[in-house]
Structures are given as C-alpha cells and as structure tokens.
Amino acid sequence: MTLAKTREDVGLIAHLLRRAGFGATPDELDAAVEMGYDATLEGLLDPVDDVELPLDLIRRYFVDQSDLRNQQACAAHWMYQLVHTRAPLREKMCLFWHRVFATGASKLIQGRVVLNQIDMFREYGMGRFDELLLQLSKDPAMLMWLDNQDNHAHSINENYGREILELFAMGVGNYTEDDIKECARAFTGWRVVNPDYMSIKMRNNTARPYGYISWQFEYDDEDHDHGEKTLLGETGDWNGEDAVDIICRNEATPRFIARHLYHFFVADEPGVPQWPHVEPRDPEAIQAMVDTYYESGYSITAMLRTLFDSDFFRDEAARYARIKSPAEMVVGTLRLAGGLEVPSYDAYAAAATCANMGQALLNPPSVEGWQGGEEWINTGAYVQRVNFASATLDDPKKPGVRSIIDRVRTSVGGGSLTPEELVDLCLHILGPIETADATRQGLINYASKYGEIGFGDDRAIENAENAIVAVIQIIVATQEYQMV
Questions:
Q1: Widest CA span of the chain, in angstroms?
Q2: pLDDT for 171-182, tens place per residue?
Q3: Cis peptide before 343 (omega within 30 of 0)
Q4: Which of 45-49, 226-230, 388-392 shows the lowest mean pLDDT across its residues?
Q5: What is the pTM of this model?
Q6: Which residues, 6 or more positions from 427, have their beta carbon under 8 angstroms from its beta carbon?
Q7: Region for residue 442 given its phi and psi (left: phi exceeds 0; alpha: psi -120 to 50; beta: otherwise)
Q8: Residue 278, Cβ neighbours under 10 Å: how many?
Q9: Cα(66)–Cα(62) distance, rounded to whole angstroms?
Q10: What's residue 50's pLDDT?
C-alpha cells in the first residue's frame, strides 16, 4: 500500500471514529486502520462488548450514585459510561436520542428516571424506529415530562400528542391541530404507577423513608378513549400502539429522522425550528436514508449504515465540518487523555464542565433539546472549551499523554525533531488534524522556544517531554480542535 493511500485511509477512518464515536486514541486508530474501514464500521454498528462499570466501588465512595436521585450524580454516572464505553456508536446514539427526545431531570425532581430512559435508548436506539417510539411512549420519564399522566378519556392533555408529531417523529407542517387532539386521545390511559403502592394508584413522585419509589408504565383501559379517531387520514378506534404505527408509516417520519441523523453525524444544519422553511443541505442524502428506512423495516442501524457508507460522508469536505458538542468535546478529550479513574470526582467535574459549555446532560433546556451548530460557541463557552482541553492534557503521567510522548520518542529514535516536525507529528497523532496555514505557523512559533528536541540524556528528555505536552495543549486550544 502506498504512503498516500495509507494517509487517505487514516484520515477517513479517523473521521468515522470521530463521528460514530468520540474520537480514537492513537492505539485505537492504529487497530482500526489495520481492520479497514468496512470492518471498523460493522464493528461500530454491531458491538459485541462493552464496559461493565464497577458499581460497587462507585457506590462505596459516592452514595449519591446508589439511588441516583439528583441530576449531578446521574450526569457523572453517565459520564463514566461515555468515556469508558467500548461500544462508542451505541453510546453516541444515546446522546443523539437524548437530544431529539429531550427529557429533563429538573421538572421530574429525580434524575434516575431520565438515566433509565438513557438505558432504554441503549437497548432500542439502534433498532426499529417504531419499537423505539413505542418504548418512548411507555417511558415513565417521558409520560411525566410531557404530562401524559394527566391525559384522560374525559379530559385530554395534548402535550405528548403534540410533541410526538412536532418534535419526535414528523416535524411542523406534516399534521394538523386535529391530528394532535386525535393523537392525544389515542394515548389516554397511558400513565405511571409505583408498583409497591398499586392498590392506591399512586401517580406522583412520592418519597418514602428509603428513597423514591420506582416508576412503572401502566395502561388503564377504563381511562382510555375508545371512540373513533382520525389520525393522519386514517380512521379507527386507535390506541397508542396504533398511533405509533400510523406515524411511522408516514413518509414525513423517515425524512425527519434522516435530517436529524445528517445534522448530527454529517454537517451542521440550521436549527430544527427552521426546517419547515429551509431545504436540507443534501436532499439526495436524506432520500437515500428514507429509502433505507422503508427497505429495512424502519431500521435505524440500516439508516446509519447507509449514512456512514455513503460518498457524502466519506467526502473529504465532510471532515471537520461540524462544531463539536460539549459532550463530544469533553468525552473525546478525556478518552484521549486516558479516561477517568474509577471512582473519581473528575466525573462530576467533567459533567459540570459540559453543562458550563451549554449542554447539561439529562437536563436539556426545553423539549426542543439543543439546536447545536454555531449555538455551541460563544465567548464564555469557548473559554471553557480551551481551558478544559488544555488542563486535561497537561500531565505526562496520564496514560494517554504518555502514549503520545512515547510515539514521538519512537519516531525520533536517536535523532532530533525540529519545531516544525514536532508540530506536524503531534497534529498527525492527535487527529490527524489539518489546520489553516496561519494556525500551523503559530504552533511552530510556539514550539520554537524549546528548540530541536531529542531524548539523548535526562535534561534533553525533560525538555522534550515539556515541549510535547506544551504543543499538545496548544493544539487542543486551536479553532480546528473545536471541529469534528
């Protein structure tokens, strides 16, 4: 294989691992390049292994992660999973669906039910969309978040009926106000109960001496409206399962989901509220995923395979074309540094930093979730990004930083590296990251204060390690590192 071909493969596979996960460590990238693009993609789409967190150790040191009641503990708990997962696409899809089906712990008082929803995404988020939408409709956090608990046969509450059409499946312009009412009627009697107190039909978030009671889904047929309903042009005595089936057959649904997938994995689009007024960036890409949706029986995995195997994703112009979300920024940098110790307060700090950048895990700002794109970047958030990345990669004792240093040392051998060579090598190891000429020259100017580096004696080694760490820190402070 030619050197040019090798570089092409490295860049393409690194692009896949950034988008379908949270980036790769140098060792992970080497392994993926050895496997090839197709095998790497199949491994992401069909993961066979994942990390089991040492829950006994975490709970011993962090009692709040035993009951997982407050949002901060739950966010830290998920942060462990995001950083340590060996199934990065599955975890990335949890983040994707959390953004689309935005459910917040702030209204629900306790965070565990939202974390349970993330578990549901982990199980169903890459399967059939109709099954995922049905599970979402039965999810206790969603039932309480959008008030379906108060949706009764004699008095409907339209919140869930509206949002499943507007924000979760179809998008504005593809249904009527009457469809909203009929959809709400279909979901009457879908509610939450606490099974330990079933006999008294507990419907609220009640604390007992040993913590909160687990919420469970219950269908109450006596509270369901059995009258005839006309939803999206189809008439019958529809229930919630029927509503999901009707919604998922409608062509607006795969088009809406495909645009979300493109926005999340390919290139930043305008915010969702603008979609009724702005055509997709690449209509052919959207149509390809719509076709796959029907051909595969509504399979999200099949839509993802179409996306990641497409020319529009593989195109070099698609690389570094999206702004990293705070979660992508934080998780990717932590994985590059070598992960999180377990247990560690760093998981709490990482989740808090993510929130300070504008993405509080398990607590989206509204039912619309996060719009993403340029909205991720403002003066305060940018400072947070630079400070976090630089501080995370500041210690040569961290396993990920040590791995980078060792790679540079292996490349040098018994010779030396000029500042220019050091910068180019670090950019390759960290990405490979392509920078603007002005950025690269600024990095070289910064590295020049260390002179040529080598590993001949103790003093040279100390200077070389300081130079490598400093160059890594300044690279992750660049504008290019903010892109994915």
A1: 85
A2: 999 999 999 999
A3: yes
A4: 45-49
A5: 0.94
A6: 433, 434, 435, 440, 443, 475
A7: alpha
A8: 11
A9: 7
A10: 80
